[in-house]
Specification:
By secondary structure, this protein is α/β, with parallel strands linked by helices. 38% of the residues lie in helices and 13% in strands. The strands form 2 sheets. Strands 3-2-1-4-5-6-7-8 form an 8-stranded mixed β-sheet, sandwiched between helices. The protein has a 5-stranded parallel β-sheet with strand order 10-9-11-12-13, covered by helices on one side. The mean pLDDT is 95.
Amino acid sequence: MKQKNATLIARLQSGEAIIGIVGMGYVGQPLALRYSEVGFNVLGFDIDAEKVQQLNAGHSSIEHIDDAELTKAVANGLSVTDDFSRAAEVDAIILCVPTPLNKYREPDLSFVIDSVDRIVPFLRSNQIISLESTTYPGTTEEEIIPRIISGGLQVGEDIFAVYSPEREDPGNADFTTKTIPKVIGGHTPACLEAGHALYKPAIEHIVSVSSTKAAEMTKLLENIHRAVNIGLVNEMKIVADQMGIDIFEVIDAAATKPFGFTPYYPGPGLGGHCIPIDPFYLTWKAREYGLHTRFIELSGEINQNMPAYVYGKLSGALNERGKSVNGSHILVLGIAYKKNVDDMRESPSVQIMELIKSSGGKLAYSDPHVPTFPKMREHKFELSSTSLTPESLRQFDAVVLATDHAAFDYEMIHENAALIIDSRGIYRDGGDHIVKA
């Protein structure tokens, strides 16, 4: 008896399959380049017509995506469209769209649902759909599968569905799309088998789990693990500061233990699209089962309060010098969510900027990776990055070190800034004009 997924698997294994990727952002673009690199024709989908045009011209707005690599992929057949009817042309549809929280800190699946609704009318037999967007356990079963079968196709018989969470780490040269292990959960055994055939040509190591729910939970555990530990060390930073202890010295000393300890470092809060958001997906879903995720909620509370903690350090330091935030010239160093990238998603630096702005501070920023403040849904600053020179630094009453980019000349900053609020532990030796935050 012929396997129901045999035709699809044969096309994937031969390299004849066309790979469709919905959402050409921080996850979708690297994945598209990887499939192109191993010889597949790739069709990207995005609702942003301007982005579509730029990508087809070989230009990416993401700093770590090299235009030369993108241009090569376009020459080899990569194309991007905003015409979702072309979903009928592809053999695989990989969903890489945002899953933010709404203003009530509840899951917002509108991008996922909208994308699926756009492609459902054009689905056909012998296709596979893979959701990579981070979400709560049950999303594939409860939201994706019913929409697929509404068109008359049977999942596991005619069409195949898997969940395989993205694990991109922008700016990390040590781990690439190719080398990061890929977790896959299938809706049925036939779906899982098709999922293996989809990812095996592009990813070195595949990790199977028993269901889409288990795969969805795996992604949440990865990021909850980080969020809880960062919340712990952020709380430890506050306690250590009150006791006159350098938390970074303590962490470095503890890290010499060769077992049972993993170092996490404090900062001005959590950023990026995953760690500040994903834990609350599980918190929300757990309530359906009458459960309260106390560790997650507590760490979330601590981490969300860190920008205000840094702002409080700034305000207190200015007060000690006979100044207030209102009217002071304040420079924020680094507005990306982590060092050496241009990714602004959920950046705590921006929350610090909002606090300074609301208090009447005369605000500026410097970030070599973000030359102009980008368009954001919840934040608007008409600012461009300030060049760092001894002269420019002396114009500011205070400098808030929020993101520790390698490109900053920290010695020059130390020598010329009147006051430095250090949230990243760069200036361990302190000084009269250094305030640890």
